[in-house]
Design a protein that fits this description.
alpha/beta; eight-stranded parallel beta sheet; 9 helices; 37% helix; 20% strand
């Protein structure tokens, strides 16, 4: 079985210091949070950026500042900017980080009801535009899917030339409006993927640990961190995304699977 790639989603766009005071906002906070996660065993840093007051932004300049700061302390880590941004942002806003030509970036493959009046919009034409831009910039997409229909969309667009092979997916489960985090649902999604695809599993909130465990056992990879969960256990706030990374490292070793370094992750993902 391949070594386990651990992605640390260190801040997200929606969770705030009001939810957990350890959420990073400033460049220095993001740098330190990335360092801790990297040193704990994360090969990939999934990156959103904020203004100093916590406001989500997709500013190219802010991303560049954050990426340079992270690279100062985690020289070989894979940095994966989000092109999802935050609800309400335009496509052009969301695409800004691609100008920096990162190794990877996320590609959301469908529209989702996030709750209340919030709709995370990703039309077919937007997905095509994002996929084409990633091909032009030499960026590997991580196809973010929140339900089975989004896998189908990604596969259709791959056939049309908007997504290159080998494909890599992130199965995001337990989000309001998306597929649940039941074991049955994870099996369903995995069985719907191309045989040559790699995949990461992101369980949201209470689904995180159980889905991560299944992913390790089934040969997939895992994403953890503040974007997906702020509690290390019921009622206990995590001090850092590194707490979740450390738990995955321990669990993976107990289950007999080694953890990948960033260089090993690049080989597994076809980045080199």
């Amino acid at each position: 079985m391949e070594k386990l790639i651990i992605t640390a989603a260190i801040c997200g766009a929606e969770v705030t210091k009001e939810h957990n005071p350890n959420i990073p906002y400033t460049i220095k906070e993001i740098q330190e949070e990335a360092r801790k996660a990297y040193e704990a065993g994360a090969a990939i840093i999934h990156l959103h950026v904020r203004e100093d007051d916590g406001t989500p932004t997709q500013s190219k300049a802010r991303y560049e500042e954050a990426i340079l700061a992270i690279k100062e302390v985690c020289k070989d880590v894979i940095i994966q900017p989000s092109t999802g941004g935050a609800v309400g942002m335009t496509a052009e806003e969301r695409l800004q980080p691609l100008a920096l030509k990162p190794e990877m970036a996320t590609l959301d493959c469908g529209t989702l009801n996030f709750g209340g009046d919030e709709i995370f919009v990703n039309t077919e034409n937007m997905i095509k535009e994002f996929g084409q831009r990633m091909i032009e910039e030499g960026v590997k997409p991580e196809c973010e899917v929140f339900d089975k229909s989004m896998i189908d969309m990604a596969l259709r667009l791959k056939k049309k030339g908007f997504i290159k092979e080998p494909m890599h997916f992130n199965l995001v489960m337990g989000v309001n409006g998306g597929i649940s985090g039941a074991p049955r649902d994870l099996l369903f999604l995995i069985e719907s993927l191309p045989k040559d695809a790699t995949y990461t599993v992101s369980g949201i909130g209470r689904w995180q640990l159980s889905l991560n465990t299944m992913a390790i056992l089934m040969g997939g990879h895992v994403r953890v961190g503040f974007e997906d969960n702020i509690y290390l256990e019921k009622g206990v706030l995590a001090e850092s995304s590194a707490d979740f990374v450390k738990r995955m490292v321990t669990l993976s070793k107990l289950l007999g699977r080694e953890v990948a370094t960033p260089e090993e992750a690049r080989v597994i993902l076809g980045l080199k």
